[in-house]
Amino acid sequence: MLEPVDKHSGIPAYLQIMNMIKKEIALGNMNFGDQLPPVRELKRVFGVNVNTIMKSLEKLQMEGIVEAQHGVGYFVKNSKIINPKVVDILEKSVEELKKMNMDLNTTILILEEVWKKVE
Amino acid sequence: MLEPVDKHSGIPAYLQIMNMIKKEIALGNMNFGDQLPPVRELKRVFGVNVNTIMKSLEKLQMEGIVEAQHGVGYFVKNSKIINPKVVDILEKSVEELKKMNMDLNTTILILEEVWKKVE
DNA sequence: AAATGTGTTATACTTTTATAGTACACTACT
DNA sequence: AGTAGTGTACTATAAAAGTATAACACATTT
């Protein structure tokens, strides 16, 4: 689930953290009302400084995805779980793409391009 | 094709530039042996400084995707064009995903997760 | 030889990202 | 009241990313 940040990816740590938390919520591993691990725990899990955690959480709060309660903790505010069918669709596509020796990065690049054009 | 960098995305400019060039090559819009636009032109197109362009091109060169020729230009060295079927697969998936009101960012998050698990 | 177009390098500066450490404030519980 | 667990705020420091500007070096054309 929550893994240490990749410090060599070039992507800012706070963005990676935001994305991992968003992913957990989208996949239903964290649900509305759930309490997030304490900032000191998150700091340990992600392997970054408290300030970096704070920046991620503050941004997530601005996006309305989590909510802070002083002295208590952070809570999931967003209830938008994705349709399980989404995972099915992607699994089938990924199976085919892997057979064609596609790598993840290139796939994402093409996906972004296709996304602009479709519809 | 080549668009100005998004300075508010949080993704470093040199990474965005690398990705756009990789995409052009993967889609077959740039082919083996083709000359890239001059650095001063790229600077104009992407809306960044020459040094940022140089950083992107040097990294692409290290990855074996382009090659520099001093005083002449940069050339595409990589010939790996993707199978057009890849675009077909993704187009169909994107159509369905858009019907379910999925957004691009969430889709990419789930895709990364699915990529790890499949096969 | 000169001019032009190309890549290359250097310097100084600003902003963003991240680390580290410390202290403070609020809540829940006994 | 006290204490443990939580978030919050502040300062200082450093590293990375990007900008602005200028000069330099190589290749091609005239």
The low-pLDDT segments of chain A are none
Q: Overall mean pLDDT score of chain A? A: 93
Order of helices and strands of chain A: HHHEEHH
Number-wise, the strands of chain A total: 2
Instruction: Please give the largest β-sheet of chain A.
Output: 2 strands, antiparallel
Shape of chain A: globular
Helix percentage range of chain A: 40-55%
Please characterize this protein's 3D structure.
The structure is a homodimer of 119-residue chains. In chain A, 55% of the residues lie in helices and 7% in strands. The mean pLDDT of chain A is 93. Chain A has 2 domains: 13-76, Arc Repressor Mutant, subunit A (Orthogonal Bundle); 84-117, no CATH class. Chain A has 119 residues and is mainly α. Chain A has 5 helices and 2 strands, in the order αααββαα. A two-stranded antiparallel ribbon of chain A has the order 1-2. The interface between A and B is large, with 40 and 40 residues. Chain B binds a DNA duplex (30 and 30 nucleotides) through residues 7, 12-14, 38-40, 48-52, 54-55, 57, 68-74.
Question: What's a concise summary of this model?
Answer:
The first copy, chain A, has 119 residues and is mainly alpha-helical.
Topology:
2 copies of one chain form a homodimer.
Chain A: H1 13-26, H2 39-46, H3 50-62, E1 66-69, E2 73-76, H4 84-99, H5 104-117
Antiparallel strand pairs in A: 1-2
Helix pairs in contact in A: 1-3, 2-3
The structure holds a DNA duplex (30 and 30 nucleotides).
